[in-house]
Amino acid sequence: LIPVHFPEWVAPLTRRMHSRKYRNAARTCDLIFAISSYTADDAAETLRFPRERVLVAYPGVDARFSPEGERRDLGAPYVLGVSTVEPRKNLDVLLDAFALLRRRRPELVLALAGAGEEPRGENVRPLGFVHDADLPALYRGAAAFVYPSRFEGFGIPIVEAMASGTPVVSSAHPSLDEASGDAALRADPSSPEAFAEKIERALHARDELVGRGLDHAGRFTWRACGEVVLAGYREAL
User: Fold this and answer.
1) Nearest CA-CA partner of 147 in 116, 175, 117, 127
2) pLDDT in tens, 37-52
3) Is 223 in a helix, a strand, or coil?
4) 149: alpha, beta or left, given left = phi > 0 and alpha = psi -120 to 50?
5) What is the per-residue pLDDT across 21-35, written as a single tens digit (0 to 9) for each?
6) Which of 127, 139, 133, 130 lies closest to 167, judged by CA?
7) Which ranges of the chain does DSSP label H, i.e. alpha helix?
């Protein structure tokens, strides 16, 4: 529902297309599937659709995201960000946080995977578009994964990183509560200082966070998603 709530963050064509799609769904659907309870509540309120007819089907994490396997080597320990380059992904706060962190940890590199204009900064390494098949090794090789987004439907990169055995620092925005669970360290999305502090804490508490993350990520399977969808169709029929 980002095009409805934050039209300034998307292209006009995207806003028009999604707005029509949402109106049609609210008018014609017996059920709506959402990828989180946060989004389900949002859809019911925004589209004026009965909440009991919005079912939550969490996305699954592919089996290739696991702690075992190849680890990407960038020649230095790195903090990883994975996202498109757009305003809601909040990369400016991550860049500012990393600059603060490097005063204490000058050996670190910030690796940014995602299509769009390449961010700049000292020890910042833009990787551009990274194919899905190459993401697990990138997650595994990271000292920590950081997701500072201002708003999401769910936030699947958080769970992918956890499943890969990487400690996670995520935005404290409530749209990321379900993806983060109690396994991620959370930081105010407006505060570079908070993110810098939480990243450093994640580096020190790596083993604890990795264990919690693996347990949490195990909840999100495509089988569980499919069972919710199948049950929803049965109910509708």
Assistant:
1) 175
2) 999 999 999 999 999 9
3) helix
4) beta
5) 999 999 999 999 999
6) 139
7) 2-5, 12-28, 37-47, 91-101, 135-141, 156-163, 177-180, 192-204, 206-217, 222-236
Q: What angle do CA 138, 142, 148 make, to 5 degrees?
A: 95
Angle at 108 between CA 123 and CA 84, to 5 degrees: 60
Phi, psi of 230 (to 5 degrees): -60, -45
Which is more confidently placed, 58 or 8? 58
The pLDDT value given to residue 116: 67
User: Average pLDDT over the chain, rounded to whole?
Assistant: 94
Token pair, residue 212, equals 């919690």
Q: For the segment 103-115, what is each residue's pLDDT rounded down to a tens digit?
A: 999 999 999 998 6
Token digits of residue 224 = 């569980």
Q: How many CB atoms lie within 10 A of CB 196?
A: 24
d(C-alpha 142, C-alpha 73), whole Å: 9
181: alpha, beta or left? (left if phi > 0; alpha if psi -120 to 50)? left
The span from the CA of 224 to the CA of 237, in Å, is 20
Token pair recorded at residue 124 = 């910042």
Instruction: Give φ, ψ of 161 to 5 degrees.
Output: -65, -45
114 vs 190 pLDDT, higher one: 190
Q: Please, what's the largest Cα pairwise distance for the chain? A: 60
